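[Protein data]
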Amino acid sequence: MFCTYALDPGKTLSKMTDIVTDLGAEVHGGLCIKRTEIGKGAVNFAAMVAEQLRVSA
């Protein structure tokens, strides 16, 4: 799960996680990415997903 933000993500990530979990999804982590750091955030998110896939395999 990820969200992007400009000023402060607040509780957005936890609220989104609750919504998709209630719909039946399994969330294995989350990351808030500041919009001025999308590139770095995307790399970090991809690394997090790759680690989750490695652990799950």
Observations:
- The first strand starts at residue 2 and ends at 5.
